[in-house]
Amino acid sequence: MWNKLFASVSEKIMKMLVEKIEKKFDQEKVIEEFEDLTKDAGRIQEETLKKILEQNGGTEYLQQWGLNGRTDPQTFKNCIPIVTHNDLDPYIQRIADGDLSPILSGKPIETISLSSGTTQGKPKFVPFNDELMESTMQIFKTSFAFRNREFPIGNGKALQFIYSRKQFKTKGGLAAGTATTNVYRNAQFKKTMKAMCTPCCSPDEVIFGPDFHQSLYCHLLCGLIFRDEVQVVSSAFAHSIVHALRTFEQVWEALIVDIRDGVLSSRVTVPSIRLAMSKLLKPDPELADTIYNKCSRLSNWYGLIPELFPNTRYIYGIMTGSMEPYLKKLRHYAGELPLLSADYGSSEGWVGVNVNPKLPPELVTYAVLPNIAYFEFIPLGENLNGMEKANSPVGLTEVKLGEEYEILITNFAGLYRYRLGDVVKVKGFHNGTPELQFVCRRNLLLSINIDKNTEKDLQLAVEAASKRLVDEKLEVVDFTSQVNVSADPGHYVIFWELSGEATDEMLQDCCNCLDSSFIDAGYVSSRKVNAIGALELRIVKRGTFHKILDHFVGLGGAVSQFKTPRCVGPKNSSLLQILSSNVVETYVSTAFC
Question: Model's pTM, two decimal places?
């Protein structure tokens, strides 16, 4: 009875939302609404928390902590503990197994999102509901409004390298899929993209195809077919765009044959994709010649995107954090086109929107939307290692300029004072809401002794060392690391995949540079007294990181959510096995000898 009633109400609400979205997109109205929200961020936050607790106060989880119907921030903080996913996992598992009682949320959860799983080696289950979908669309529309004010686009198409896996049913019959799959499969997504004049070039059969290699090939082909209409090239992450264009370098001649003959390559075997593409693909020798001539004239593929898609206004995707190492290659492909970083969120929910799209990705900030969740911030100061007991969390409007914090989120889908695990820095304020810069994942630390090196420290070390390769026109295709504590003393191990062959002398120099580029005082002092051993640089075969991507997809992950893990923990044995089995050369640092 409850399920039928909820389904009926949900269907009506969804219909109303779709009808609302189908109306003409009003850019200035969206910006005005955002300005109003952020001018009174403190009050909006209190109202948001009150709404969440009124909806979910009767749940098993909240009742055990003695809120007794109170909804004010101070009581909430005094009663409800700070948690990680491990703390909530038993509750979420019961929901996934079919327990219909109000465990974490007052309304039944009908969909489960899977996190990317690249951090811990396996995906996490996270509740997903209509409110999270609504906040996703609010983020998309707000971001687009500010972006379109600076980089206006007309009625065109977006070449979106997006991939959606099939949803599956949990033990309890709930629909489950990656966070991106749940968004892409929702009717609101396509309606919103259409309203914002950025429908995808590719048909649904390509986006939802079962084989991402075949889908990628067809995304590229669709982009070429509609090359004059493409105004935006995008993906969820910068890595996916770079991966797609690296693939183009390998298959461009086959794509040209398909366009010239009007017949899809035999490499695409999925019947639904072949049928959908047959409706788009017609013999076009003139287009084939144009693309061939443009590709033939390019020098090392510099400026590939504007050459292939001459009306492109910008490149769009998440470009911060673990995506920053791909920016150099993406700029190479983009030529003079601007790179615009997408917004800040996670499988657990959204945090902020990029309202300053002209900023380069390295400087991008995210203005927190105060109505999509209730946010708290644990002050970190100089410490990333568990000072939350000494430092009480502060509210959204209590953060200080220049300080670093770990984010806690309380959302509409049953997460309360949940540690996202992200470290952010307050770079400014938009009206009354903070503008955050992503710093790093808190748990991605290289640490053996008293050393503390973050993902950003690793990235800077790799950037410094890879400059040694420039004269030979070589580049680091991708990289990761691990802490080897099985040796005595323990030491850092860095894995590199290179674009070509380098000399032993050059790679030894790179190894030494890596070691000396970690400038953390704890690391340097420990290396000098041999409390930390010499850094190892291990070179892996070409295609190794592609195998890691394939492994991730094979576990049920979506390419759209893939992020190369920058620090591989000991529990991620399958990834370590892939890396170890593909090592071709090893170099040991002599930097501190």
Answer: 0.81
